[in-house]
Give the backbone structure.
Amino acid sequence: MITLDILKTVLLDLTLAVGHEIPLIVGGGFGLYLRQEQLRLSGERTLLQQLPEPRATNDIDLFVRMEILLNAERAHILQQKIELLDFTPVEGAKYFQWKRIDAEGRQVKIDILCGPIGEFYDRLHTNSLPRVRPKVPKKTLRFHARQTEEAIELDTRAVPIEIAGRCSDGAASISTIHIPHPFTYMMMKLFAFDDRKDDNAKDVGRHHAMDLYRIIAMMTESEYEVSVELGTTHNSDPRVERAQQIVNDHFDSPTDIGILRMREHPLYREGFAIEDFSSVLKEVFGTLDNK
């Protein structure tokens, strides 16, 4: 694993290259790290006091807004800027995964994702779902994204945060990026955990279980209130119904597999507020009567 500072340098380089007209949303473990750094500097009060240490990653999960994916010209600009930073497509995952290996052999990977395509289905190439791309001839644009159907409210509720550091040329830089709202983050992490809880090659979902705790621990009071509201608003959505089932089956009691996977994680510490964590999950997504 590489240092998180290298990922921040790559992100600052990219935000400087694309400018304000192509807003970037950063998810995954790196997005959570950036949020945790912001909270550490601001001292803002959060739901839970004890946070896990940041976890290592070499990926940037880069979500593109639908307005970019629908605009071939702007998507092409983003593609060009990624290539100018010496990233090349990952074989077998062209062109929604890109990688760069530096002189010391350290690899950085950028995963291009988008939220639900919904009403825009007919305006995108969707014959290889979950891979989607702008509706232009394939050879003219090397830019795809992986649809994340469960990322409800990704574009509408993304949270702006400021990041500071140094670009690759050594110049100091400050940029504003966005991260998914905690409700969106919880949806994605619940689905990811459920998909990988029995997959030894994917650490049986331990990272996702710990990330769920981190998301809830870092919520502000207002983010918590909005999350509960969004859970109610989308209560009848099949994706939220699946999230409810995952919470009910795997995060309801201390012996459920989601809680056990979290306790198995190297970053788990005694004193984590597990009961409060489970309570917030159930308040956001509701409870089921069939357990």
The mean pLDDT is 93. The first helix runs from residue 4 to 18.
